[in-house]
Structures are given as C-alpha cells and as structure tokens.
Specification:
Structural class: alpha/beta
Number of strands: 24
Number of domains: 1
Distance between the termini: 59 Å
CATH topology: UDP N-Acetylglucosamine Acyltransferase, domain 1
Radius of gyration: 20 Å
CATH class: Mainly Beta
Shape: globular
Strand order of the largest sheet: 1-4-9-12-17-20
Order of helices and strands: HEEEEEEEEEEEEEEEEEEEEEEEE
C-alpha cells in the first residue's frame, strides 16, 4: 500500500509540474494576444486567461510588472450609438487587479503605481443617462452615456473587495478603500474610507 501511495504522490507531483508549465505557456501566449490589442502592455505583466471583455484596446495602457486576474473586464468606449468619445485608461506599474473586476471609461481612468485591488472592483467614469425625468421613459440601454469626469487613483492605494469607485472621483496617494465601499467623492491622501456612500473613518 505504501508503494501505491508513493507512486500516486510521484504522479501527482509530475502532473502538477506539467500543469504549471502549460499554464505558464498559456499566459505567455495570451499576453501576446492582448499586447496586439492594447496601446501598451508593459514588461513582466501577467493577464490571466481570460479577460471577460476587452473593448477599445487601442486606448488602454498597462504598465510593467502588473497582475490582472481572471475574468476582468476593461472597456474604453469611443462611441455609443451616435455619441463619440475620446477615452483613455492608463494603469501604472506594479498594480494588481482582482478577478471579476470591471473598468469602464468614456473619458478617463488613471491608475498610479503600486495600486492593489481586491476581487469584483468596479471603477467607472460614466452612467446610462442623467437622473432626469424625461430620460426615465427610455430604456436604460438607449439612454445617452454621461460622465461627471475621469477617475484618478494615485500611487500606493489599496481598494478592498467589492468596492466601487464612481465617476469624477480622485483617490489620494496612500488611501485605503474598505471592502464594499461606494466612493462618490474625492478621498484625501493617507486616509481610510468605508461605507455607502464612503466616508472618512481615519486619517493616517
């Protein structure tokens, strides 16, 4: 029986090593595929297969040594029905974006260096229509896209799981966004915010 378990252990180790190599090859191939679609993909940046969605890659730049987990959606929209936009998404160096996160821009999302994000993060600079009575009789999908301004996230920010960052927000350097927060206003540098809407709970 010991010999059987020994052989099974050896087989598992061999299988794991082979799988690791196959996964590494898949990442390299997928990075090449994404690089062809993006404005820039930095050195040593890993994008886990596969992105849930990628739109407007020519407006998207990702820096060096970043890690983008599986099923992330990144969209830079230059048109929507008869509307035209000039979007830009810039992600700095040494950033991490958790699985199932969603970034969407019609103006701009600017993320600094050393920014870390948990899973299921939403960062968006636009919405389907303003809160105006005459638009409410139109299907949300057919309402014009509007933006209150770009989103700016400065260096060394940590964004907890399932947090949302709304249009026109600037998050200052070194800030911490607690999990499940909805950030609707600017966040001061070196502060901690939490809640819906997010409020400052500590200044560091």
């Amino acid at each position: 029986m010991k010999k059987v378990f020994f052989l099974l252990g050896r087989f598992y180790s061999y299988f794991s090593a082979v799988k690791s190599q196959v996964d590494k090859i898949k990442r390299v191939i997928y990075a090449g595929y994404c690089s062809a679609k993006l404005k820039r993909l930095g050195h040593d940046t890993v994008i886990e297969p596969y992105l849930l969605g990628l739109a407007g890659g020519k407006y998207i730049s990702i820096g060096d040594n970043c890690y983008i987990d599986k099923s992330v959606q990144i969209s830079a929209w230059d048109s929507y029905f008869d509307q035209r936009f000039s979007p830009e998404i810039v992600i700095g160096d040494n950033c991490g974006i958790g699985a199932y996160s969603h970034l969407s821009a019609i103006k701009g999302i600017y993320i600094g260096n050393n920014v870390r994000m948990g899973k299921s993060i939403l960062i968006i600079d636009n919405a389907h229509g303003a809160s105006e009575r005459d638009l409410l009789d139109i299907s949300p999908r057919q309402r014009p896209l509007v933006s209150k301004g770009p989103v700016v996230i400065e260096d060394n920010v940590w964004i907890g799981e399932k947090a949302s960052v709304m249009p026109g927000v600037r998050i200052g350097r070194g800030a911490i966004i607690a999990a499940n927060s909805v950030v609707t206003h600017d966040v001061d540098p070196y502060s901690v915010v939490a809640g819906n809407p997010a409020k400052t709970i500590k200044r560091l």
